[in-house]
Amino acid sequence: MSRLLDPKILLAIKDLRLAARTAVSGLMAGINPSTIRGEGLEFSQYRSYQPGDDLRQLDWKVFARTDRYYIRDSEIETGIATRFVVDASASMNHEDNGYSKMEYARYLAASLGWLANLQGDAVGLYLLEAGRVVAMEPKRDYSHMARFWYSLEQVKAAGRISSPEVYKRFLAGASGRELVVFITDLYEQDEELMRILDNLSLMKHEILVFHIMGNNELEFDFSGVATLQDWETGRKININAKVDGNGYRERITEYLSEVRVRMLNRHFFYRLLNMKQPIDQALRDFLKQRAKLSV
Hints:
The chain has 10 helices and 13 strands. With about 300 residues, it is an alpha/beta fold.
């Protein structure tokens, strides 16, 4: 696999738009099915006439040349609004392998936003900061996408996610059904993130949850005696990697199993992302899974 797409290499690309385009290079699939075959404006392909096809779609010029009946298939645009919701609380400052969850989330959102825009979807961005939401309503034009990438470049993780009541305007959303891409580490004190997701679910949106965790969180790959500090509460604990490791790994396995069940029960698309995974591979795996589910 090309080292160009290693997360640390992507971080060296200061232009987030360029980094996003680099990450999705070669990916043909979109973030959601956005076209269907039928009578439309954009030509797609020819296919042989089958009994029951609409005779108005026959291409008589092709018939005159080939003496065969062909249907002129088109694509009907069905682009929707894709809303990216990014957790910008302090826990997203957690680092592993030289970069933070916030940086990983930034490049993931930028890359998926590029894909969504490429397939004709209106793209919106909502940054959940402490006590407020920075909102960009979904649009399709290029200048809007430039602001989308700029906003991601500028976001800083800080504070704690508040209760859903703080985000009433954001939760009100649009009247139509949307695709909501929620990028978070799911670190919460009082179910605040799950309640936000539940509120979004009530509006019948399709919800994708990307759960970002460091490899050091998943594998507990610490050594010796160390002090760990909670980014959001400031609480510190002392650990002995050899003594505490097995118990921690059992608890993290139970926690992740519980998270998957909760997401499944709510009919959310859920994907755990290990920060050691290159961005391009994470995108490929996600799109393959999406393609299987949409068949």
